[in-house]
Amino acid sequence: xxxxxxxxxxxxxxxxxxxxxxxxxxxxxxxxxxxxxxxxGRMVLIEELKPEAGQEKDSFLADVxxxxxxxxxxxxxxxxASTENGQCFFxxxxxxxxxxxxxxxxxxxxxxxxxxxxxxxxxxxxxxxxSHDNASSPLDLDAVYVDGxxxxxxxxxxxxxxxxxxxxLRDVLKLGADFEAMLDRDQxxxxxxxxxxxxxxxxxxxxxxxxxxxxDYCEQIEQQLAEPSEVVxxxxxxxxxxxxxxxxxxxxxLLVVLxxxxxxxxxxxxxxKANAPKPGLVSVEGGRYTTPGGASIKVGGFRISAYEVTIxxxxxxxxxxxxxxxxxxxxxxxxxxxxxxxxxHDPDDWVALYSAAKAAEEWNEREVEVNMxxxxxxxxxxxxYAKWKRSTLPTQERWLAALVSGAEVPSAIPVSxxxxxxxxxxxxxxxxxxxxxxxxxxxxxxxxxxxxxxxxDSLWVIVGGSYLKPGKGAATREWVEDRSLRRPDLGFRxxxxxH
Length: 499
Known about the structure:
Elements: E1 6-7, E2 13-15, E3 18-26, E4 30-37, E5 42-49, H1 57-68, E6 78-82, E7 89-93, E8 98-99, H2 100-105, H3 112-131, E9 134-136, E10 144-146, E11 152-154, E12 158-162, H4 166-178, H5 190-200, H6 211-226, H7 247-266, H8 272-275, E13 281-284, E14 287-290, E15 296-299, E16 302-305, H9 311-325, H10 350-359, E17 362-363, E18 366-367, H11 379-388, H12 396-405, E19 441-449, E20 458-463, E21 477-480, E22 490-491, E23 495-497
Parallel strand pairs: 19-22
Antiparallel strand pairs: 1-2, 2-3, 3-4, 4-5, 5-7, 6-7, 8-10, 9-12, 10-11, 13-16, 14-15, 16-23, 17-18, 19-20, 20-21
């Protein structure tokens, strides 16, 4: 084998642009290496197929192709594969932080709110695999990494072939058993977490939970623990798995109706416009779409908010941060790259804006109210809010797909003023998405290169016209270098995966 290998001047094993530093693991067919990519100076992992296992080359490369097709922010990336110079290997991302297995080994305990957040993110990654029919190797705690900022990533366990029906069940059962030891049982919310884990194992329910159910229950518990409730809830409030009897469901529904009735009768009546119902999420089918500029884009199915996040909704987010700050966790939702000098997520002139909005008075010579889109926020603020809502910002591609899915001629959508999202605005698509041509411009999730300079640096994309900068209406796009940019006509909306 050694005569097939290239070697560096220091005698290190070399795989193309990658210099191996340490062999981490080895089995009959493969070796795993910690390596440095020389051209960019980053550490990566190398999976090498041993020359003596050459008969497995086709299956090895088939697995690599399957892994490389995965595009999900939670799942580790594949950088490249090579079969040159007698070597067969692929390079992939070295996930930051330590695995849950390593953390469990040193006795680390996780508080309930963080526990269900980790569990929800694992569920989201697996829902993606289910929706894309990705076969996968078994999921263990050594596949889930958490870094010092609390960012969660999952190893790319995808393999070639079709996903079998028992892949999800296999992983749900194992995680339900293995993760329990890390729960801090002395903190609020632990009972709810233990109940959820038991349901994952199939205890006291007709069958073990599905990944979608796990995600939904985790969202409920996170919300209960993050936001003080006006109703004292039992340990597993709002968590009702499928049981063998429907009687429990009937009792639960009656109880919810009763509580809701009491709250309605005891609350003071608020102004009608502050309580007017807002449209929900709009589903956009996956497929290929042609943008207003004529480019062809392909997206998976997703759901996007029918309106930009409002002043009132953003105020709720800031209220949650105030609660978390008492425990020193007010940076829970920050992006890991957020500048350290950025403290908090208050929009520009927030005190004056929110005070005027609550009273339906003037701010910056315009009458404002709480149902109008939030403005004066930067990308970091928008990202944190979306994370709090267990959502993301839409990518440029998703935003454009949502636009053209409901507008044959996007330029025909009239540009609106900065108005409440519950207004009967003409600035809407046929599928009910408001404010894409006007009201406020919006941040998107990821940087993209300028169409006029596709080989240049990627910049952050702002989409849609605004009441101050109508541009080309819904076809308007801007590319900016600074994610800390704030403007009185710049807000955002959120989106979620379909599953």
